[in-house]
Amino acid sequence: MYAGRGWVEGKIALVTGAGSGIGRAAARLLAAEGATVYLTDIDADAAEATADAIGPAARAIRQDVRDEAGWEIVTGRILSEQGQLDILANCAGIQLTRGLIETSLEDFRHVFQVNVESVFLGTRAAVKAMLPRKSGSIINIASNFANIADGLNTAYCASKAAVAHFTRAAALDCAQRNTRIRVNSIHPGCINTPMLEREIVDVAAKRGDPDTSAVRAEWQTLAPLGIGSPEDIGWAVVYLASDRSPYTTGSELVIDGGHIIR
Ligand code: NAP
User: Fold this and answer.
1) What region, left, alpha or beta, does residue 244 occupy, with left being phi > 0 and alpha being psi -120 to 50 degrees?
2) Any ligand 1 atom below 6 A from CB of 143
3) Which of 16, 24, 29, 42 to mutate to test ligand 1, by most ligand atoms within 8 A of the CB atom?
4) Is the CB of 22 under 6 A from ligand 1?
5) Is residue 156 annotated as a catalytic residue, yes or no?
6) Cα of 17 to ligand 1 centre, how many Å?
7) pLDDT in tens, 159-170
8) Is 35 a domain residue?
């Protein structure tokens, strides 16, 4: 039935945080599997560079995912240009490697704005855009820190747990509206992106050691399979976005190489 076709052939996708790391890989793989992809990022140049590398199936838009009006503009443009939105991958996010005492209220709110409010705004805007066709797939990138607590990432852990539970509630809401709009979260472990690199540098600095090699080696052993690649997560986005996961909603897909709980 699927022979000779890409996994998301003909679908229209929106990927946030697409200028870097996991978002970039997800956008690239969705396009490779036949989707037309709108790439957004707060860093317009990075989104543009990724779109250029992907080719004609990609379009770049600057978007700050915290901005409510911005979501209406982006989804409105997609609907006017394509007539439909099938896939939203919420990949934009930030990490704050800071313990409890070191986290200010401002820090905490900032992490929640970028990681949680954006997912709420994006999911709501996408569901509104998907409702006329009663189908679509929304993929929220949480973290295995939604499941595993880490004292050095207090606000970040809380934000990712919020994303996971919000995802379940949104999935139920969509199912109870008698739609096939599916909402799922992916929970990556250590993935080789600029975000992980910043964490390694931060932790080394906190230990008073400017040489990052010890922390890097330690992070490499957190999971039996070591550190993952952005494509390891990008392929999961493609699967959840495709018609090969029709019964999957409200679920969390942990992809962390078997991360060992410390
Ligand atoms: P990344 O390489 O830093 O990419 C994140 C992208 O999001 C960056 O281009 C960033 O732009 C952008 N962004 C930040 N704030 C934004 C905003 N307000 N509006 C729009 N875009 C914004 O990080 P990544 O590792 O790919 O992370 C992607 C997602 O996976 C995040 O939600 C992260 O929490 C999650 N995750 C990552 C890992 C990991 O090990 N890498 C593990 C678990 C979960 P700037 O660079 O300009 O800030």
Assistant:
1) alpha
2) yes
3) 42
4) yes
5) yes
6) 6
7) 999 999 999 999
8) yes
Q: How far is the CA of 165 from the centre of ligand 1 (A)?
A: 20
SS3 of 124-162: the string is HHHHHHHHHHCEEEEEEECCHHHCCCCCCCHHHHHHHHH
Residue 108 structure tokens: 């905490």
pTM exceeds 0.85 for this model: yes
Residue span of the structural domain in which 131 resides: 12-189+229-255
Token pair in block for residue 89: 């991958």
Residue 161 lies in a domain: yes
Which domain CATH number covers 82?
3.40.50.720
Is residue 215 a part of any domain in this protein? no
Q: Which is the closest atom of ligand 1 to the Cα of 188?
A: 43
The total number of structural domains in the chain stands at: 1
Question: Torsions phi, psi of 250, nearest 5?
Answer: 70, 20
Is 175 among the domain residues?
A: yes
25-83 tens-digit pLDDT: 999 999 999 999 999 999 999 999 999 999 999 999 999 999 999 999 999 999 999 99
d(CA 217, CA 233): 22
